[in-house]
Design goal:
The protein is of the alpha/beta class. The protein is built from ten helices and twelve strands. An eight-stranded parallel barrel has the order 1-4-5-6-7-10-11-12, surrounded by seven helices.
Length: about 250
Amino acid sequence: MLAKRIIPCLDVKDGKTVKGVNFVNFRDAGDPVELGKKYSDDGADELVYLDITASLEGRETFIDLVRRVAARVAIPFTVGGGIGSVADVGRLLEAGADKISINSAALRCPQLIDDIAQAFGSQVCVVAIDAHEVDGEWTCYVKGGHEPTSRHLLEWAHEAQERGAGEILFTSMDHDGVKGGFACQALSELHSALSIPVIASGGGGTMQHFADAFTQGHADAALAASVFHFGEISIKELKHYLRGQGIEVRI
């Protein structure tokens, strides 16, 4: 059995790590390079960096950040935010990223998934899906969770897989930042529908929540932000807790 992964997520705005609740109300969480180094030293399996402003003028600043992270961090990291072309992916990989995450651009132009997978391999391409549940149906959103689409979670995740995505990063917008637990039912449905890894995001507030994501949701990895950024959960303690629950993790 493959070990389950713990992945801190760092949302980057104007060169700083920030964290919000339900995709709004952001507060400063520290320097993204130093935080990444700390998580790497503490035993995180991977990192995700998201450029949440993703403006054209900020693109070079973010690429410089990727270079600095690559120089300091000893674990794989994924970057996302504003990626809209194969050329964008090439620049970020050249700067030192291991994987890239695409969300809105993939929904606007699904062919982008095929193009990235063909150019760099499926292992590079993480398709992130932000979804909100209404009457039992999960609708996919774009533009940082501000605009609904006509696509639904399971069918879009399956199409992304068929086009060449290597992983699905599913964020429940309903659970994001409120620390009430991951969307385990939806995660379990994704696990049943897909053959590629699923990363759980949105809702991690206690160590038991992470255990539930793995045992009830059958997630391959669990991602969180504020509980790590603000010292509410230690990655080392979390991994020992999970192992005590019979969940295979790297320590």
